[in-house]
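hi support,

uploading two proteins for the ticket. first:
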Amino acid sequence: MSPRWLVTGAAGMLGQDLVAALAHEDVTAVAADRTALDIADPGRVREMFAAHRPAVVVNCAAWTAVDDAESQEDAALRINGTGPAVLAAACREHGAVLLHVSTDYVFAGDAALPYPEDAPTAPRSAYGRTKLAGERAVLETLPDTGYVVRTAWLYGAGGANFVRTMIRLEGIKDTLDVVDDQRGQPTWTVDLAARLVRLGQAALDGTAPAGVYHGTSAGGTTWCGFTREIFRLLGADPARVRPTTSDAYPRPAPRPAYSVLAHHRFAAAGIEPIRDWRAALDEAFPALLAAERPLISGRPG
């Protein structure tokens, strides 16, 4: 009998691509969006586990409104901290593997070299603190079967994101001022979904040790550099994208100035890390353009 996978947050951008990836594997995938499963409700989680008895749980559910978390930290903590703790407890009871998706915001963002998986955490925002709480709950509850996969700068066809926004703005703005003092790794949700599938399979096979993994694209760029590459793919002049500083766009939550992550543990587990961000964007772009163009008045679809 094929193993059963439970994907929480299945209606989100990453969740959609993960469910699609699992459709090509010899597994049974149960997709649970937030209406089907409140991960912070122990009773609902017990019912879901009793009904489906998953061998692998991938937690894509999260509070991702970074700025709103500054004024609603308790609400964010319920989803980002309590929810993973409840899932971890259920996985321990049922002997299931848990893959929990986390974030670069658990770091201070002041490094000069890519963060290894065991680098000290020091979140500077409420969002980062709540995500770190979820990481700790998973790793403490499931020392042998708990996996934390940190990612960053996600984009995909299945939801609102930076790439789709820039596609839209290119058609209505002569120039764009984009932050050039934050450095990270644009990561396609399709690529991350593929690594989550491989990691879950390796966990069941006993070939990937539990712990922290970094699931971001190779290389790195700034938001300005990212936008210029988007313009290039649109056939637009990248010089229309002008560099500016974070101070020009003050936000309630501080953004990491440097959030490039290293990928040693995927390689050590025999799983190829994600490719360079430019190569991924090239392949992803037609689907992103197709998803955004119907929403753009006056642009051919």
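and the second one:
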Amino acid sequence: MKLTMEDIILDSDPRIREKSQPVDLPLSDENRELLQAMLQYVRDSQDDEIAQAENLQPAVGIAAIQLGIPKQMIAVVVPEEDGVHEVALANPKIISESVQNGYLNGGEGCLSVKEEHPGHVFRHARIKVRGYDLIQDKKTVISANGYFAIALQHEIDHLSGILFYDRIDANDPWKKDPEAEVI
């Protein structure tokens, strides 16, 4: 299975707001293939040559619902200074979160959102996520901070039908939080 931009639904499609359902473990062959394809899309989208040749929009994450499939599966690949953080999670659940917020200084974007939605999206600066990771082939708990934590929360939001711009303050999109970690 190979994914391209044609497979990704946009925020104009009502399915993007559907709640995703947990998947059975161990993963079925079908779900394993889908999650692997999602991970490969994100990996390939970060390689300029492959992205251009295969019509891939650059991404750090994708959720199955963005393919119109309401299953609790996400793939995240975040290159950072300390290495690449990669997960392909089934049934991800945030089990702890910091009080301190974090946000991307330039705002967030999304494969399913074509229009600009400028503003700060406040999320938890640090989180722990439990789920089954296809890469490790086991249930795991992931501790994340910085950009990786934000990307995980963005994708997990998709599983509840929440888009990043739902979290932007309509009255003050660029409001500051002096206590927040700016990424």
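thanks. also noticed: The chain has one domain: 5-182.
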